[in-house]
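Narrative summary of target 7.
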Amino acid sequence: MWRGPVVQARKNAVNAVKWKLFSIHAKLIAIAATKWWDPDQNPSLFAAIHTAKKAWVPNDNIDRAIKKWTGEDKTAAALSEIVYEWYAPGWIAVMVSVITDNKNRTVQNIRHIFSRFWWNMWENGAVSWMFNRAWVIFIDPSKYSFEQIEELVYETSAQDLVKEESYIKIITWVDDFLEVEKFFNDKWIEIMESKLDFLATNEIEVDDFEKALKFTKMMEAFDNDEDVNIVSTNEIISPELQKEVDEFIEKNTFRT
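Modeled conformation, tokenized:
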């Protein structure tokens, strides 16, 4: 009973995630295209198009994104890339990168999310000094051993290699990303995901349930915002505590 509305709600949720993914990639392409329209002579645009295609963004969406810069799309509004910074209780650092065509709307939305979790924005530079901008490549550890990837990494310009339970993470500087990713593609190593990120230079553990719950709910709120591109923090939540938080949220989420 009522199966139809439930199924439709799930479809709507999936479509919303897909729409935001396509929208963010389109914005990244449009921003990169401001430097130069030709991807063969613009590494940033080439990387933006490359990652968009890996995310199955349709070619029509990519073409429209480039036209926003060339002026062919007369209805397109100018895009801005903005980074908001703040400290959460315990001096945990958070950075949120957005791409928007309406700064007033975006700053109101971001401030609203901050205020919901009792935190305030700081001035630019207050937090960013604790992060490095880099590309991150993720590889499935169930398909390749850490030792196998480690041996290959030594042949590249990658900066670091990290082993986690659910992935192997390769960190590269922005200018080296395409070269490193191509190297692994040429070796027939399947890449789970690759993305631009802000990486914290130091980490702070969160071991309190209420704080971990706030962080998780905050991340959900940012995930649902149409303009948010990257959210980076230096907090560490143990898998056990994160599981407890996720189960609490699942149990207390109203479903139609």
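The first helix runs from residue 3 to 33.
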